[in-house]
Amino acid sequence: MLTALDLHRIGSEAVSHNVLNSGVDFLRAALDRWDGNASFVKSSDTFDRHRNLRQTDLRKVEKFHDQILERKGPRSTFHSTYERPFNKTLARKKKYHKKDEVVLGELGNSIQGQKQYYRLCRGEDLRVIDVTSRLYCRYVTNGSPLYKIGPLRMEVQSLDPYVVTLEEVVTPSEAADLVDASARYLMRSSTIRANGGSAESFMRTSSTAWMLDSDLPVLSELTHRIEQIAGVNAQQNRGAEMYQVVNYGVGGHYTVHHDYIDKGLINNRIATFLVYLKDVPQGGRTVFPWVGTGVRPKRGSALLWYNMNRVGMPDSRLQHGACPVLLGDKWVINKWIFYGGQLHTLPCGPEKKGDTIRQPQA
Ligand SMILES: O=C(O)CCC(=O)C(=O)O
């Protein structure tokens, strides 16, 4: 069990990183534990002196929390506070009683996106019943002999933009093999910068291993399955990128971002096929702030969405993020499908503005 001192240290550390909401919580818990231990303390003078110091610390931090909240709002990349101040007079201000607005179906500003990301990470669903009531599950073969006898269970998570989950795309033993084989190649993940380079960032705290289709039989098999299910060319180099395995520890996350990249049309990522290689006991959802929903990692299941439409226009509604892992760890494998790889296989046709390339069929 954590002692009062442990709790106090964690609280102080949180405060020093501007995580003021949790900082206050831990400092308060330290004080409560201190009081709980009062009967074991021999010298009441020393006890009172320490207690008063801790109480003063807590008050100071609460005051600091309120000042930051007033000046900067509840969250940025660099700080977090509660939505309302501790001070009762401040808490009466109108701005602390506004109903949280939700922006869906279009790209809002990044602060709104972050707010919605946090709400989805807490397990909320931001959509209205009119939208959710049209969703459905069905078995799909996509006309492929591979799935004729054992069709895949597909659940539509969003119709527009189109996002689906597919169950049991890899078996538990294949998932375990993929985790084992990639573990030794893991390196700290990076993100792509505006200048085309890449760098480590607090926005993405995970480790990554790049794997070739030829590295393991299960990888070339998975490519074949992706092609059959999604009806795309997923062959490495021409049709898709190498596989990227990602491992998140406790607290590991990836804030809101999009998968399409600014390096021309041909090698841009028209679709993302992401497979969960493990269950995550708590946290770690993949969430779509502008769609208003998220998916809980389930071993063997895949998530498929289209980052661009058929004419190559990016769809910014497909921004997404990986929520912090709260318990256990998280393993996923990404296959990003290239726009250029589909040019010779997709029929041209009259397209509606939002048309995706191909959707799995029953
Ligand atoms: O881990 C996830 O749930 C999402 C991963 C992701 O967005 C990415 O690797 O680009």
UniProtKB/TrEMBL annotation:
GO terms for cellular component: endoplasmic reticulum. Residues 239-339 form the Fe2OG dioxygenase domain. PROSITE patterns: FE2OG_OXY. Its cofactor is L-ascorbate. GO terms for molecular function: iron ion binding; L-ascorbic acid binding; procollagen-proline 4-dioxygenase activity. It comes from the Eukaryota. Pfam families: 2OG-FeII_Oxy_3. Keywords: Dioxygenase, Iron, Metal-binding, Oxidoreductase, Vitamin C. This is Fe2OG dioxygenase domain-containing protein.
